[in-house]
């Protein structure tokens, strides 16, 4: 479903059912076997489901390392504050779910119901777990919104005749999720109002504040696609020193402050990701410094403080429409960075260090 049809026929969703591994927490880094299941293409449902590693118990060490995905805490807090019932529905055994979420303050109490794979006859992609969730909440399946990162989860949600938002946990997998009602890039892109639920109230003038994060290094050569010719030069940073931090943040368009020790501190808007329009194989970090420079500064140390998120990366029907959108991003970032909540970060000492 595209966003215009969502707008035309607003849904009346009353509760949200969420998966755990890959949707709320990042367990993929630990359970490499999960990669296999996540790439499941729907052709052998039950065989693959039987191998789904989230059904395996995890050791206490592994459970301690289960990190909340971007937007997970925000979503749980928001739904709780607004009194929207939430169910956690995972193929993991109930005990394992408990161990994993016990490290996340307030999660266990936020869910009206938690259902493990050991509490239903058959795990996802069977709809059993979602039927059980609706039954326990006394809701019609059509009033339930499922949020899932994997194909078995989406398949199960649709088999239960629920509305399903897919948030693929592996990059570049969106095209496989045709059964979902909507596919988003990360939980940051969830628009609850499209489903008749209370909207997030933390967007500020088209931007979403994020906990600041920091990257820096020498400016490297990019693809030399002539983005300068397009009027959009981007001072690329190497991704290889930042694989960990990049894996913690969704691809997308962000903004913040950029420091070049010899030149000063500048407003900055950037894309991080695979540039879908160009279909890159490698992730790139592409900051556009919002200042006219008279010369290049390849090799110079560039420091970035990233303070807000604007939108996911997208494909565009033409180069002109991509350029127009990037200019719109520029306007959004320029205006937002004058707000005290963002402008204060201009003084961060990280930007001045050489
Ligand atoms: P590349 O593909 O090598 O990154 P670009 O066409 O994106 O080439 O140009 C980027 C280079 O242009 C930067 O590395 C920097 O040296 C220079 N540059 C000049 N003005 C800017 C600006 N406002 N923002 C970013 N880079 C700029
Ligand atoms: N590339 C895309 O393919 N899709 C995008 O949505 C996109 N958004 C961008 C937003 C900003 C603010 C910037 C600076 C770049 C963006 N790009 C995007 C990357 C652009 O394609 C890239 O900088 C040029 O291709 C040069 O490599
Ligand atoms: Mg560049």
TrEMBL record:
Any one GO MF annotation of this record: riboflavin kinase activity
InterPro entries: HAD-like_sf, HAD-SF_hydro_IA, HAD_sf, Riboflavin_kinase, Riboflavin_kinase_bac/euk, Riboflavin_kinase_dom_sf
Key words of the record: ATP-binding, Flavoprotein, FMN, Nucleotide-binding, Transferase
Riboflavin kinase domain sequence ranges: 208-338
A biological-process GO annotation: FMN biosynthetic process
SUPFAM superfamilies: HAD-like, Riboflavin kinase-like
Pathway, per record: Cofactor biosynthesis; FMN biosynthesis; FMN from riboflavin (ATP route): step 1/1
Enzyme superclass (EC): transferase
Keyword ATP-binding appears in the UniProt entry: yes
Domain of life from the UniProt record: Eukaryota
Any matching Pfam family: Flavokinase
The keyword Flavoprotein belongs to this UniProt entry's keyword annotation: yes
EC number assigned by the record: 2.7.1.26
Protein name: riboflavin kinase
Taxon lineage: Eukaryota, Viridiplantae, Streptophyta, Embryophyta, Tracheophyta
